[in-house]
Amino acid sequence: MTQVMTRVKTQVNPPSRHIIGSPVTALPFDSQMAVIMEWAKQGLSKAVCIANVHMLVEAYKNSNFATVLQKADMVTPDGMPLVWMLRLLGVRKQNRVAGLDVLQALCDRSTEAGVKVFFLGSQSVILEKMRERLNQEFPDLQIAGMEPLPFRPMTPEEDEALVEMLNQSGAGIVFVCLGCPKQENWMANHKDRVNAVMIGLGGAFPVYAGLHKRAPGFVRSAGFEWLYRLLQEPRRLWGRYSSTIPVFLWLACKQLLTVQRQQLLEEYNDATV
């Protein structure tokens, strides 16, 4: 009876708070990893989005992409601005749930649980470098497969063959690296077709492979990882950051002021009753 109740409970989406219109999962890092592992052990088809400021602003601008995040099973707070927003919205113990940390934590937990993992997307050279590091850090990890995808749209026949390959591999977790918003749209389109937890990791693959450096811990904690990345890839990231960060700051401040105004109104109404 207990096992049945646990199975039903893990199929319910974890709690969340809305940040500039999109839901962001409000659970500590370890709790989010535990939920994902339970889904993976059960072979459930789930979509996990690793959200940052760019992703939430894209959702604000694009209603179709907003629907993708609304329907996702988990939207983790990657980036300190989302963590700070959750704390200001009442989730006091929220910590960061970033892509690279998710990758390493789930590889570790999958090794212990005997859950197979699949790496989808990116480039062959990056996947091979990842395999080398994974074999060193997690020698008992069961890698169900590593498969780059073409930059062009896949034909229906190719897509069906890919789905069959993923399901035949027995993977409980599929790490997806296609970039935002392509990977989130891909996961949404393959929900209930791929029998695994699909996790969009974006830039985590090249960082884990050693092609890009990760910001030091104190830089990440201070919320300046975006600046560290900008200094590494100014041409690619300048346009993205200049068009998303100001929008996010404006919308976040507007949301917090609205929440504060509602709280003051409720306190006033309670005092006058």
Automatic annotation (TrEMBL):
Keyword Transferase among record annotations: yes
Organism: Floridaenema evergladense BLCC-F167
CDD domains for this protein: Glyco_transf_WecG_TagA (cd06533)
Lineage of producing organism: Bacteria, Bacillati, Cyanobacteriota, Cyanophyceae, Oscillatoriophycideae
Source domain of life: Bacteria
Keywords linked to the UniProt accession: Glycosyltransferase, Transferase
Keyword Secreted attributed: no
Protein name (record): WecB/TagA/CpsF family glycosyltransferase
InterPro entries linked to this entry: WecG_TagA_CpsF (IPR004629)
